[in-house]
Amino acid sequence: MIHGPHVRGYQVMTDGTLLDVTRWNQSFGWAASAIVSTTRDLDVFTAALLGGRLRPPAEQRELFAAPPVEDTNGKAASYGVGLQRFTLPGVGAVWGTSGGGRYGYLAGLGGTADGQRRLVYGVTANDAKNGDHPTPITQRIVVAGMPLSARD
User: Fold this and answer.
1) Is residue 5 part of a domain?
2) I need a surface site. Which of 33, 52, 75, 138 has the fewest CB within 10 A?
3) Residue 72 sits in a domain of what CATH number?
4) For residue range 102-136, what is the model confidence (pLDDT) as tens digits?
5) What's the pLDDT at 150?
């Protein structure tokens, strides 16, 4: 049971109906989904992580260093030590997670390498579980949420 105020999650079933999955155990993905937090909690964490307050300088540089290899699709690797580089149309490069999608929920965090511009979101989204690809709602949230001064 989840105590206190929380978002309810809904998943579209194969017959098209919505199922309330709020009480489902979402921890099937290793440590992913093993905590319940707020977007404020995630923003405080993101500000500290991107702002260099959690790791020594040498380790901080590793957050933004993708290895010089190709990924399985033949593209330059974009994933380093815990963060991934995304190039967003009209925005440019940002670093973060590709979205914490679990059944009925979607969350993500990211921002510029200096942490001055960042975005944290959490939604109840029935299309959240979409493999390794960002969902259309994720892309719209991120592009809309980045301040104009962060755009190329």
Assistant:
1) no
2) 75
3) 3.40.710.10
4) 788 878 888 888 888 888 888 776 665 555 555 66
5) 44
Name the domain count of the chain. Answer: 1
User: Are 81 and 75 contacting, i.e. CB atoms less than 8 angstroms apart?
Assistant: no
pTM above 0.85, yes or no: no
d(CA 78, CA 95) in angstroms, rounded, equals: 9
Helix (H, G, I), strand (E, B) or coil at 85: strand
Domain region containing 90: 10-150
17, two tokens = 């109906």
Contact 105, 128 (CB under 8 A): yes
Nearest-angstrom CA–CA distance, 13 and 61: 43
d(CA 50, CA 25) in angstroms, rounded, equals 30
Pick from 102, 93, 83: which is nearest to 142 by CA?
A: 93
For residue 76, what are its two tokens? 């330059």
Q: Is residue 85 part of a domain?
A: yes
Which tokens is 60 given? 């901080």
Q: Which residue has the tokens 């149309």?
A: 89
